[in-house]
Q: What sequence folds into this?
């Protein structure tokens, strides 16, 4: 990644010639991620002793998601208040009058449930695949033990096979990550020093604050050393920065959780895919930042009540970014439109979005991994009893 970044800065836009190698790496990871999520989740659920354990895990991890996502939205707003990058910005680009509507909470919940399970797999709807796997896993747990045992063994075997597939794909990792780093910095690197530098800096500042929160929670609530944790998971952060895709990084996250952090499969197979859809702290920082940046550029001041509304709507909208490169940008435009602000900001943010998305994706995935480590430690007694 470092070598690729140097090549990108030296060659400039000529470095984008290697972009297809990076795109191929992302495709390979996504190819493995969809079935890996499904079978890992099934293997984890069917290894549970009863459904009470599943409910307890869900309660813990969802509480963590709400807490950290709320903090992320606050950090995004705070960084923009401190730096005020939108002041003096002139909005002159044309923009579409509408990019969509803010989904209701009911719509968000209903969209988690697939009408057609095969269509969910074909379109890569991770949230719907997770829900389908949850229901199938619950049904398997309710079967008599003599019927459940072969299914549990089969799900575990396929999950192991798919993790081995990720090992094979990661042989190509250094080339793919290097190519993505070269292409990204070759195309966008110069804009770090342009007029949007303050906005990018504000986003990176809020993201850094979120990392401090994660490491503090990790150090207080688990026996993991933050420094050791970051070293053990280094490959994952290189992948998130290079791919800007939570879904592509999910395959690597499974491998890290299993082989380096030694987290229980029955927990990480549930929390990591669930977090990939529901826990979007990095995206939340970006949503709040883009909104306030636009408001500053348009000369609009938000009251305290309005900023509470921003946090509540952001909690809903952050679930819809899809886990793919650039997925959060459309959500940010809907967020801007919901508060009747000019959409001309789209032409500005789109030009440097990948520079923000590198950090957003890393924060998204780091939040999932830290949450998994915290829940795993809190469940250590039941894990030892199950063993």
A:
């Amino acid at each position: 990644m470092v070598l690729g970044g140097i090549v990108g800065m030296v060659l400039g836009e000529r470095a984008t010639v290697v972009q297809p190698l990076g795109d191929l790496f992302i495709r390979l990871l996504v190819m493995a991620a969809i079935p890996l999520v499904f079978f890992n989740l099934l293997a984890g659920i069917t290894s549970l002793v009863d459904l009470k354990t599943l409910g307890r895990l869900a309660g813990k991890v969802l509480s963590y998601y709400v807490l950290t996502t709320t903090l992320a939205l606050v950090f995004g707003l705070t960084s923009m208040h401190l730096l005020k990058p939108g002041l003096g910005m002139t909005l002159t680009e044309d923009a579409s009058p509408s990019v969509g509507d803010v989904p209701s909470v009911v719509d968000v919940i209903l969209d988690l449930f697939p009408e057609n399970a095969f269509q969910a797999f074909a379109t890569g709807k991770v949230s719907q695949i997770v829900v389908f796997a949850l229901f199938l896993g619950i049904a398997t747990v309710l079967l008599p033990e003599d019927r459940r045992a072969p299914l549990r063994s089969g799900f575990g075997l396929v999950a192991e096979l798919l993790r081995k597939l990720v090992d094979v794909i990661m042989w190509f990792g250094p080339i793919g990550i290097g190519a993505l780093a070269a292409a990204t910095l070759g195309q966008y690197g110069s804009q770090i020093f342009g007029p949007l530098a303050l906005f990018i800096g504000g986003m990176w500042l809020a993201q850094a604050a979120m990392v401090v929160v994660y490491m503090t929670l990790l150090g207080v609530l688990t026996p993991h050393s933050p420094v050791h944790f970051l070293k053990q998971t280094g490959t994952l952060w290189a992948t998130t920065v290079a791919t800007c895709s939570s879904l592509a990084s999910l395959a690597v996250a499974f491998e890290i959780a299993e082989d380096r952090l030694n987290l229980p499969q029955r927990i990480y197979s549930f929390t990591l895919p669930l977090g990939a859809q529901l826990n979007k702290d990095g995206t939340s920082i970006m949503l709040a930042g883009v909104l306030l940046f636009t408001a500053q550029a348009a000369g609009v001041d938000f009251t305290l009540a309005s900023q509470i509304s921003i946090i509540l709507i952001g909690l809903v909208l952050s679930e819809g970014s899809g886990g793919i490169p650039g997925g959060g940008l459309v959500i940010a435009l809907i967020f801007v439109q919901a508060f009747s602000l000019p959409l001309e900001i789209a032409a500005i943010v789109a030009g440097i979005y990948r520079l923000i998305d590198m950090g957003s994706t890393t924060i998204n995935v780091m939040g999932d991994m830290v949450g998994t480590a915290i829940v795993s430690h809190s469940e250590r007694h039941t894990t030892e009893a199950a063993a």
Summary: The chain has a mean pLDDT of 82. The two ends are 39 Å apart (CA to CA).
